[in-house]
Amino acid sequence: MALLEIRDLHAAVEGEEILRGINLTVDRGEVHAVMGPNGSGKSTLSKVLAGHDGYEVTNGQVLYDGKDLLDLEAEDRARLGVFLGFQYPVEIPGVANTYFLKAALNAMRKHRGEPELDAVAFLKLIRERAKMVNMDENLLKRAVNEGFSGGEKKRNEIFQMAVLEPQLAILDETDSGLDIDALRIVSQGVNAMRSADRAFLLITHYQRLLDHIEPDHVHVLVNGRIQQSGGKELAEELERSGYALFEENAA
Amino acid sequence: MSASSKTIEEITGKRGYEYGFITDIEQESLPPGLSEETVRFISAKKDEPEWMLEWRLEALRGWLEMPHPNWAHVHYKPIDFQAISYYAAPKNQPKSLDEVDPKLLEMYEKLGIPMHEREMLAGVEGAGEQRPEVAVDAVFDSVSVGTTYKAKLAEQGIIFCSMSEAVQDHPELVRKYLGTVVPRKDNFFAALNSAVFSDGSFVYIPKGVRCPMELSTYFRMNAGHTGQFERTLIIAEEGASVSYLEGCTAPMRDENQLHAAVVELVALDDADIKYSTVQNWYPGDENGVGGIFNFVTKRGLCAGKRSRIAWTQVETGSAITWKYPSCVLKGDDSVGEFYSVAVTRGYQQADTGTKMIHMGKNTRSTIIAKGISAGHGEQSYRGLVRVLPTAKDARNYSQCDSMLIGDKCAAHTFPYIDAQHPGAQIEHEATTSRISEDQLFYCKQRGIGEEEAVSLIVNGFCRDVFKKLPMEFAVEAQKLLEVTLEDSVG
Ligand SMILES: Nc1ncnc2c1ncn2[C@@H]1O[C@H](COP(=O)(O)OP(=O)(O)O)[C@@H](O)[C@H]1O
Ligand SMILES: [Mg+2]
């Protein structure tokens, strides 16, 4: 059974259809890249999968590990291992990053019937994962994303992913806003987490992320539909010729 | 609006009031009504000296001529002062802690108030890890039923007792200070309190003494149709310091009950008083029926040079709160601080804030007020910063932040600034925010459920104030905010 199976997914925002029939199957151990121009529906797809209730699913089905994903609340999807690295992570003033992460981790452990992690074990875990993504320990003590630079916010997303160890990680334009060093570190983090039972959906505008993380499949999303799928060579082709061709096709 | 903001309203509309039980105990109380006779009865009941009775009667005469104030941004039906009983007390008045009615002790146990002094065994392992000691004065309706650690504190010359005892045992101190910070006729409710006050706490910290433990008073209203008129007086002599906490709860009743308190603080040269409140009176039900009217006058006088008074309050209860803990900064270089978190939900209303009156040179004040409104809650921040011509180089910083949850609640800010010295530096910042859908979604995407997310975000919003509370209290306050905002059904 595939980890994620999206069948003819249609979704609308404020009455306007944005996703117009998406079909996509992701197996465990795979890395899929979804590429597309601005406004093509990439973030919409990621939020629909994560369960944002501002988006209305008008048609289609999503199976996650065989379960009806769309039937679950956002927090339950997260607890079942769906992680979304946000394109624009929000700030939560006054709430320490570690405190937030502890609440998140314990909510997931509770869901799995595991006991809460004690303070020592938790600290050990976050120190180790912070090192993995080269995250400054000072950022751990600060309020969630408050006053973080764009790059720090993105790194914080990858750090949270490393701590929460999801089954399906959807990373929405985690590469944009990163300088080349940060991009390398983030990619190393992702590569270190690749495993046979974990899948990634990398949403990106540019090909450069794929220089660091080699995808198994590449999909081109234009106008709310996947116009073409292929191997990593598709990304290279896009880099040369741009999205224009697909936009013409889609129009 | 989307589904999640609807849930917040449902969550915050629920009443997780866990202190609403009534203690079944034999009580005696005055029949309703207020006259000179009532005042004489209360005074006689407490066996007060003549001067105290006169003081009360003068306050009553003043009150009778005062109009009910109507400037606050709160709405309620006129209070019938003749329908209130002004005195209620347990029938068996204990003479010492050992004699306190077991039913009362059980109640305090249930409320989590330590009424036992901890046995301190020298050399016992692990003693250092215990919770810090807290001395408690327990006020039940109109009387104090017991005060812990009195003897231990007395070793250092500290007086911690009920106001009734202070009138008997330390009349010179009471006469010297009572009414000096909040005059008898200061305002309508202060005058009423001055006439009929029953119990409250008295604290005296002698010169140079740092009080070795937190002092606290726990106010419990139990009897129906009864008002509580607490009177508290705290004096810190030169170089003395004390941290004082107060907590309050009441049963759920469908009548409105009046709690009109007066608190006076006096800090002499280099003295330091930290006064913290966690106010959790019964707020009324989901339709706005019942709940406490909390009309309180709290004021501190920084009489001495370099003295400091800090008010910290967490106000989650009461149907109506009308309260402005203030500082009169008379001594040069004195410091006044006000840190406040106020929550209004259901049909609660609060008009609260502070006054900082700068008189001395180089006086400084800080105001940080966080207001949270949910449901049909109505909240106003009302603050006055006044710099008198004598207050050279006075400085104030004020920050008032409001958070709205749902779209039926309201928040207002009324900052008044009166700078009579040209050199005054006054800074005021104000923000209004909502818990955004995006913040909630972010939390949920990390596996955190909606209720926990709301309390997490609200706690973060209040952090600047919570960190000013004593450790133990900060944890309490955080939990209280959780039960206040969360569905108590797990
Ligand atoms: N909350 C929203 N309200 C209105 N329109 C939206 C909203 N979210 C997305 N859209 C619209 O949907 C389309 C796709 O947006 P998005 O999924 O963010 O694209 P991408 O991430 O590919 O740049 C855009 O036209 C955008 O304006
Ligand atoms: Mg996007």
List the helices and strands and how they pair.
The complex is a heterodimer of chains A (251) and B (490).
Chain A (H helix, E strand, L loop, with lengths): L3 E10 L2 E11 L4 E5 L6 H9 L5 E9 L2 E2 L5 H6 L2 E4 L6 E5 H15 L7 H14 L4 H5 L1 E2 L5 H15 L3 E5 L7 H14 L5 E6 L4 H4 L4 E6 L2 E6 L1 H10 L2 H7 L1
Parallel strand pairs in A: 3-10, 3-11, 6-9, 9-10
Antiparallel strand pairs in A: 1-2, 1-4, 4-5, 7-8, 11-12
Helix pairs in contact in A: 6-7
Chain B lengths: L2 H11 L13 E3 L6 H10 L4 H15 L23 E3 L11 H10 L22 E7 L2 E5 L2 H5 L4 E4 H7 L1 H7 L10 H9 L4 E5 L8 E7 L10 E6 L4 E9 L6 E4 L2 E6 L4 E8 L11 E12 L5 E8 L4 E4 L2 E4 L5 E10 L4 E10 L5 E11 L3 E10 L7 E11 L4 E10 L5 E10 L2 H9 L4 H17 L4 H15 L5
Parallel strand pairs in B: 3-7, 6-8, 7-9, 8-11, 9-12, 10-13, 11-13, 12-14, 13-15, 13-16, 14-17, 15-18, 16-18, 17-19, 18-20, 19-21, 20-22, 21-23
Antiparallel strand pairs in B: 1-2, 3-4, 5-6
Helix pairs in contact in B: 2-3, 3-8, 6-7, 9-10, 10-11
The complex binds adenosine-5'-diphosphate and magnesium ion (MG).
Magnesium ion (MG) binds next to helix 1 of chain A.
What is this entry, summarized?
With 251 residues, chain A is α/β, with parallel strands linked by helices. Chain A is 39% helix and 28% strand.
Coarse structural class of chain B: alpha/beta
CATH architecture of chain A: 3-Layer(aba) Sandwich
Largest interface: A-B, 31 and 26 residues
Count all strands of chain A and give the number: 12
Strand portion of chain B, in percent? 25-35%
Helical content class of chain A: 25-40%
Q: Report the major sheet of chain B.
A: 11 strands, mixed
Q: Which whole number gives the mean pLDDT of chain B?
A: 86
Number of domains of chain A: 1
Helix content of chain B: 10-25%
Q: Which sequence of SSEs, written as H and E, runs from N to C of chain A? A: EEEHEEHEEHHHEHEHEHEEHH
Rg of chain B, nearest Å: 22 Å
Measure the end-to-end span of chain B.
Answer: 25 Å
Radius of gyration of chain A: 18 Å
